[in-house]
Amino acid sequence: MTTILSIKDLRKSYADGFEALKGVSLDIEQGEILALLGPNGAGKTTLISTICGITTPTSGTVMVGGHDTLTDFRAARRMIGLVPQEIALEPFEKVWNTVRLSRGLFGLGRDDAKIEDILRKLSLWDKRKNAIKELSGGMKRRVLIAKALSHEPRVLFLDEPTAGVDVELRKDMWEIVAELKQAGVTIILTTHYIEEAEAIADRIGVIDKGELLLVQDKNTLMAQMGKKQLEVMLSEPIQTIPDSLAEHNLMLNGNGDALVYTYDTHADRTGITTLLNDVAQAGLVLRDVQTRQSSLEEIFVNLVSGEPA
């Protein structure tokens, strides 16, 4: 695949000595969806702002489609669409004019058919004559996306695009992102909603304290770092775990009717067979057995906290 965005040793420091970015390096392929996860203050928005030319880096380089964002700013910026976190729109302007103006700002000629296509795909066509102030918060976010798409960018940044919107609208956004991916648009998404990354991303990046901790294929990440839990449900609840089962490091659920065993799927031996034999030897009667994979949220929390997954 073709690398469309290449970031090399990107750093951003401020006069007070604070380092917002600490040598971030990352290559993003054309047409992929990368979800960038991290707690508040991790550096997500600073990274996006620096790539988009809003913030000037202290050092390092960013290439977008072969164009340096500092020495060839106009060409690089023309390839980028940005949907910011904050909703900053002229409240009395019509939706149509707001989106059409954004296209003109990038030096592109008038193309009403393109604007209509964007508005229809974002379910904004019926609102085209409405003033921004008449729209709901979710519709305003759609307008932000329409503005970002108006100049036909090849790389789209979505900075917390579904913050504050309801679940139904959030899933609509996921469908929009999927359609953009099919059209070949590369998407970099920052989000606090772990299920968002899990649902739509190809790769997951985790950033904390200005450092990129890892970038990994989503499925590979979950397979490598996720662990499985075996829940052994008992026919009768118990008060404490028998001493004979201590070596298995079991946990008892809140109701006392299930033993929870955590194991590594990549280990040579999972220990499940021995565990089940020992449970029977302890005189406990099994009612059912089921497994559960660690969620991406659990993996993320463990990464940021520095604890093993």
From TrEMBL:
Pfam families xrefs: ABC_tran
Entries under InterPro entries matching the protein: AAA+_ATPase, ABC_transporter-like_ATP-bd, ABC_transporter-like_CS, ABC_transporter_ATP-binding, P-loop_NTPase
Residue ranges of every copy of the ABC transporter domain listed in the record: 5-234
CDD domains, per database record: ABC_DR_subfamily_A
Keyword check for Disulfide bond: no
Keywords carried by this UniProt record: ATP-binding, Nucleotide-binding, Transport
GO molecular-function terms, A-Z: ATP binding; ATP hydrolysis activity
Statement: the UniProt record of this protein carries the keyword ATP-binding: yes
PANTHER family per the UniProt record, alphabetical: ABC TRANSPORTER ATP-BINDING PROTEIN (PTHR42711)
Protein name: Putative ABC transporter ATP-binding protein YbhF
